[in-house]
Amino acid sequence: MTMLEVSLQIFRYKAGEPPHYDTFTIQVADTAHVLDAIDIAWAVHDHSLTFRRACHHSSCGACALRIDGVEKLPCVTPITDVWDGHSPLRLDPLRNFPIVSDLVVDMSGFFQRMSASDLAITRHSEPLLPLTVDDLPAGVQLEPVEPPDNLPGFSRFESCIECGICMSACPTVAADDRFLGPAGLAAIYRARQETDDPQEAAHLLALADGEHGVWRCHSAFECTEACPQAVDPARKIMALRRELTAQRFKKRRRR
Amino acid sequence: MTMAHLEYPKIRRAGRWFDVRRRKLGMWAYALNRITGIGLVVYLYLHLAVLSLLSRGPGSWDSFVSLARAPYFLTLDVILLAGILIHGLNGLRVTLTGFDVGVKAQKALFGVLMLVAVVALGAAALMIFGG
Questions:
Q1: Is the CB of B94 less than 8 angstroms away from the CB of A222?
Q2: Pick from A69-73, A95-99, A102-106, A133-137: least confident
Q3: Dist. CA A223–CA A179, nearest whole Å
Q4: Euclidean distance between CA atoms A137 and A243, whole angstroms
Q5: How high is the pLDDT of residue A128?
Q6: What distance lies between CA A212 and its chain's CA centroid?
Q7: What pLDDT is recorded for position A131?
Q8: CB contacts, 8 Å: A16 with chain B
Q9: What are residue A198's phi and psi, to 5 degrees?
């Protein structure tokens, strides 16, 4: 393990003060991730530096920000992957969100859009249990876990961690505050896949078909490029468009 | 949102349409479509303004035509054609992917269509300057 001397150029904003950048030079191991470097800057240089982090393994999406202009999860981004060895590493908050303080953005509008689909957090198609573990000691028997009573099947969470990276990467979100955005539309697509109820399906498609829905997307595909969880929101937006177009053709034929 | 939050004005945020730094090919296609789209709208109004010369009689029109035959003016024709080709062919990509066709191959699709644009533009430039 080698120690690196890295300069972090961090976006700073506090209410009532003009935004600017502060540069902190820190010592960090070459095995560290960018989030470790931010932690050190906070601990050693400035306790007023605000940023979010929780899980440290790309499960929660809380730490999402821009590293040298590109949206990433700093908790799983090795510093040696993004630092060129001499220039300061620039850290900015996500774009297209109101900035609360330093690297912290207001995600409330985003979460509201995500909830538009009323997406269930579990899905039936990928049951997690029973477990099969090949390397357990002989004689050890695993007891299958019973699903909770209130869920039809005990399933894992969706891949989307609601980090907001796709919203920051999308150029359309920049100029349309009410655009449901890649994550919101991907959630609608997922909810649409889950339902056989015609009324619910119609409601979801109407959401996607709205003024701030799928037709706002102009095929930059940055959401899919930036998504750290390979959710591929752009593909889902296009699939929704196809369904909506097919629906319109069918309606015309019936007339 | 509280007043303390920092939010940039919409016009400044719209500048992100053209920010291709460290972005992928799809973003270049997006930015190109906007630049050419704006260019073509500006051209449309210029074209209408030029056509209004007809109302001033043959003299003013003829002097414009002689100007339009100058090499630097022909260069503007090539730029116009580049805008039409890039916007039109890129629009084809947007339409196809918008119908869920070729989404996975959108980068290759963009590359091929832009190659077609370059070849067609080269041929057109030869015709414009050669003819």
A1: no
A2: A133-137
A3: 14
A4: 50
A5: 46
A6: 20
A7: 45
A8: 4
A9: -60, -35
Picking from B94, B108, B8, the residue whose alpha carbon sits closest to that of residue A217 is: B94
A chain contacts of residue B98, beta-carbon cutoff 8 Å: 217, 219, 238, 241
The span from the CA of A56 to the CA of B102, in Å, is: 36
User: Which tokens hold the place of B12?
Assistant: 């400044």
Q: Read off the pLDDT of residues B68-79 as tens digits, 9 standing for 90 and up.
A: 888 888 999 999
User: Does A69 contact chain B (CB < 8 Å)?
Assistant: yes
Q: How far apart are CA A175 and CA A10, in angstroms?
A: 25
Residue A152's Cα: distance from chain center in Å? 27
Contacts of residue B110, defined as CB under 8 A and 6 or more positions apart, other chains included, come to: B25, B26, B29, B90, B93
> Is the torsion defined by CA of A160, A164, A169, A174 positive or negative?
positive
Around Cβ B121, how many Cβ atoms within 10 Å? 17
Our CA-based measurement puts residue B108 at a distance from the nearest CA of chain A, in whole angstroms, of 13
Mean per-residue pLDDT of chain B: 91
Residue that is written with structure tokens 């109407």 in the block: A206
Count of residues in chain B? 131
ipTM of the complex: 0.86
Q: What are phi and psi of A63, to 5 degrees?
A: -85, 0
What chain A residue is nearest to B26 in terms of C-alpha separation?
A220
Inform me whether the pLDDT recorded for B127 exceeds 60: yes
Q: Name the DSSP letter for residue A187.
A: H
Partner-chain contact B29 A219, CB within 8 Å:
yes
Residues of A within 8 A of B19 (CB-CB) are 171
Tens digits of residue pLDDT in A147-202:
555 554 433 336 788 999 999 999 999 988 889 999 999 888 888 887 889 999 99
pLDDT confidence of residue A225 = 95
- Could you tell me the two tokens for B53? 């010369």
